[in-house]
Amino acid sequence: MGAIEEFEKVIAKRHQYAQDWKQKNGGKVVGWLCTYVPEEIIYAAGMLPVRILGSHETQDVTDAYISSIYCPFCRDALAQGLKGRYSYLDGIVHARSCVHIRNTFVNWERHVPIDFAYLMFMPAHVQSPRSKPFLTKEYGDFKEALEKWSGKVISRNDLVRAIVTYNTNRRLMKQIYELRKRDNPPITGAEAMKMVIASQLMDKAEHNKLLGQFIKELYGRDIGRETSARLMLIGSEMDDIEFVNLVEELGATFVIDEHCSGTRYFWDEILPEDDPLAAIAARYIDRIPCPPKDWPERRRLPFILELARAYNVQGVLLYQQKFCDPHEFDIPTLKQMFTENNIPTLVLEFDATIPWGQFRTRIEAFLETLTFNLV
Amino acid sequence: MTATARYKTKPLDCWKKAKELVLEHYMKIATAKEDGRLLVSGCAASCLALPAGLGDFVFMGGEPYGAVVAHDPSFSIPAMEAAEARGYARDMCGYMRNYLGSMFLDKYYFTGGPWPRADFCFGRSFCDAGHASWYRAVHEYEGIPYFCYDEPQGFNWSGSAEQKKEYLAGQLFDGIEWMEKVTGRTYDDEKLIEALKNFFRTEALWGEVCLLNAAIPAPLDLKSMLSLMPISMLRRHERCAVEFMEQLRDEVKDRIANGIAAVATERCRLATNAPPPWSFLKMFRYFEGYGVCFVGTLVYTVNSGEVKFLDDGTVIPAVPPEERGWPPMKDRESAVGTLVRWLFEHPFGFHVDWDRYLVSVAKHWKVDGMALFLNRGCPLMNTGLQDSKRALQEAGVPSTIYEGNFADCRDVDETLIIDRMETFLEGLGISKLPVS
Question: Does residue B160 sit at the A interface (CB-CB below 8 Å)?
Answer without folding.
Answer: yes
